[in-house]
């Protein structure tokens, strides 16, 4: 997979990308302009409240969006509870006891349903909430193409198969993102989401005790709250510099061998992404621009043809 910065962030104009997405995916930022004109303000208001309660929630919602889109497209499937007919994604390995923020999406959905019933999908709410979480933490903003539908089912096995883990190699990351038509550059930019959020000790223990490509003082710092045994759920910030500010410090950490997860440091470890990581570490604007481009591409992933979809009235269960 905290206090929110409120400084203004640039709006990144990507009309060309939006047009391509709108044409290819039949999504449009104006999809609800008539049917639910207050949608954006409702989502923004609820996300602002959620982040005021807990700044970390911005990272949690962004992670939900990633984990939704990587499993059969951005269809809100991660939000579904298990039923008698399917075992969903919430308890898949990458999500069990770590995916969080479902109650925030529920709260937004309740307000949206009151304003425009049976109109806005949970998948679109999640996409907007992820964007607002990034922006409220000081990151960029962008126009979110809308018009997704919600899947009526979910698959735990698909989540286990499609989500890269914290121990992934660079080759594995490139392959798994490539399977979603996301380039190595997209992958490296999207990994910058780890400039916010926390990770559990169990996911970085091996790195801080056994890996050599790690700053010694940083390893010692993390060992204070992540013992060799026990404390599996103890948390540490993914970005040691600005844990809850969306910026390019993540890449500066990698250059200094302060990546928390093995999969983080793989981006700067003598491989194909080193030059790009160094570029992002020196240019916040380049990182922001590439992050937005990659988010738009990932947000354009839709369910395979034949998937049964609808606009769910309750994000946790099919209608």
User: What low-confidence regions span 5 or more consecutive residues with pLDDT below 50?
Assistant: 1-25
In spatial order, strands of the major sheet run 1-4
How many separate domains make up the residues? 2
The number of helical segments is 14
**By helix and strand content, what is the structural category?**
mainly alpha
Number of strands: 4
Largest sheet: 2 strands, antiparallel
- Taking all residues together, what is the mean pLDDT? 93
Give me the strand/helix succession: HHHHHEHHHEHHEHHHHE
Query: What's the CATH class of the largest domain, please?
Result: Mainly Alpha
How does this structure look, described?
This protein has helices at residues 15-25, 39-53, 57-69, 102-115, 122-136, 156-162, 170-178, 184-191, 201-210, 216-223, 249-255, 262-265, 274-282, 284-299, and strands spanning 150-151, 198-200, 235-237, 309-310. It is mainly alpha-helical. It folds into two domains: 38-163 and 301-310, Peroxidase, domain 1, CATH 1.10.520.10; 170-298, Peroxidase, domain 2 (Orthogonal Bundle). The strands form two sheets. The protein has a two-stranded antiparallel sheet. The chain has a two-stranded antiparallel ribbon with strand order 2-3. Helix 8 (184-191) crosses helix 14, helix 11 crosses helix 13 (274-282) and helix 13 (274-282) crosses helix 14 (284-299). Mean pLDDT is 93; it is low at 1-25.
């Amino acid at each position: 997979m905290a206090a929110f910065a409120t400084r203004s962030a640039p709006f990144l104009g990507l009309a060309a990308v939006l047009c391509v997405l709108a044409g290819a995916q039949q999504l449009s930022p104006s999809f609800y302009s008539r049917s639910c004109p207050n949608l954006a303000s409702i989502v923004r208001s609820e996300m602002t409240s959620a982040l005021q309660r807990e700044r970390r929630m911005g990272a949690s919602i962004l992670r939900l969006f990633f984990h939704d889109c990587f499993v059969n497209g951005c269809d809100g499937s991660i939000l579904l509870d298990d039923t008698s007919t399917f075992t969903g994604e919430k308890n898949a390995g990458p999500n069990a006891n770590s995916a969080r923020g479902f109650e925030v999406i529920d709260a937004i959905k309740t307000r949206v349903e009151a304003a425009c019933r049976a109109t806005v999908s949970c998948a679109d709410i999640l996409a907007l909430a992820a964007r607002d979480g990034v922006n409220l933490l000081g990151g960029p903003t962008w126009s979110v193409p809308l018009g997704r539908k919600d899947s009526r089912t979910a698959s735990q096995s698909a989540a286990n198969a499609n989500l890269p883990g914290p121990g992934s190699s660079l080759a594995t990351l490139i392959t798994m993102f490539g399977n979603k038509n996301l380039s190595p550059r997209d992958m490296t930019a999207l990994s910058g989401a780890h400039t916010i959020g926390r990770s559990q000790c169990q996911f970085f223990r091996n790195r801080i005790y056994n890996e050599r490509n790690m700053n010694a003082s940083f390893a010692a710092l993390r060992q204070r709250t992540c013992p060799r045994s026990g404390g599996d759920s103890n948390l540490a910030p993914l970005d040691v510099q600005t844990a809850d500010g969306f910026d390019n410090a993540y890449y500066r950490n990698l250059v200094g061998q302060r990546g928390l997860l093995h999969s983080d440091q793989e981006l700067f470890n003598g491989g194909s992404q080193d030059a790009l990581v160094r570029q992002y570490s020196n240019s916040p604007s380049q990182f922001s621009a590439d992050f937005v481009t990659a988010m738009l591409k990932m947000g354009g992933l839709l369910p395979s043809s034949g998937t049964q979809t609808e606009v769910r009235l309750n994000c946790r269960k099919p209608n």
